[in-house]
Amino acid sequence: MTCSRVRIHDLCVITQMNTEIIRNINQAFLQLEFSIKLLNFMERRTIDKDEFDTDLVITARKKNISFYHSAFNTYDDLILGAENGVLITVGFTSIVLETSLQSVGNKTDPNDRSSNGMLRSLIYMIRCAYAHDMMHPKWEVRGNYAQLLEIPLQSDILRLDLSMKHNQIFNIEDIGGYENYFEMKELVCKIIS
């Protein structure tokens, strides 16, 4: 009887932990959604540049931090800032996916040719692309990771030959765009749950 209670308790703790991990993944991808929407609003110029680019003072404990107006001289400056936000957020989400999988004991293994194994390798490779330079992510594909990946998604099969990507600039289109990236996120949540 005690053994059953311990197993049920352990299962409840694991379920709660996995729920928290999935909540973190969803929050990270909500930030990506926000960044993409902000970029869209900037590109359509639906945010008033002059209203956005006003003085801002942040009151801190030791001293105030001031951001002055005219830091963004044109809409192109605002668009570049929003593009950088999207770029950085893709890196952030890849790190969240990677650490989430690690935390549930799902280790990367380039020799695992199952669908989940190839998904795991791809997430690791995206994280590695951002690891050394967030502003200019490059594929770092070495050893057994240099392989053709075929990952079934809900809408398509993601095919990517990583052996052709080493030292190339990472672009979200390499993996089929944001649609595929959000589908990858859903697969990771299923693995964790």
Q: In brief, what are we looking at here?
A:
By secondary structure, the chain is mainly alpha-helical.
Question: What is the rounded distance between the termini?
Answer: 27 Å
Q: Roughly what percent helix?
A: 55-70%
Sequence of secondary-structure elements = HHEEHHEEH
Number of strands: 4
Mean pLDDT: 91
Specify the overall morphology. Answer: globular
Number of domains as seen in the coordinates: 1
Number of helical regions = 5
Which structural category fits the helices and strands? mainly alpha
Q: Strand percentage, roughly? A: 5-15%
Sheet bearing the most strands, described? 2 strands, antiparallel
Question: Largest sheet, order of strands side by side?
Answer: 1-2
Residue ranges: pLDDT <50 for 5 or more in a row? 8-13
CA radius of gyration is: 20 Å
Characterise the protein shown here:
- With 193 residues, this protein is mainly α.
- It has one domain.
- Helix content is 55%, strand content 8%.
- It is built from 5 helices and 4 strands, in the order ααββααββα.
- It has helices at residues 2-43, 49-52, 75-103, 115-131, 178-192; strands spanning 56-58, 65-67, 148-152, 157-161.
- The strands form 2 sheets. It has a two-stranded antiparallel ribbon.
- Helix 1 runs antiparallel to helix 5 and helix 3 crosses helix 4.
- The radius of gyration is 20 Å and the shape is globular.
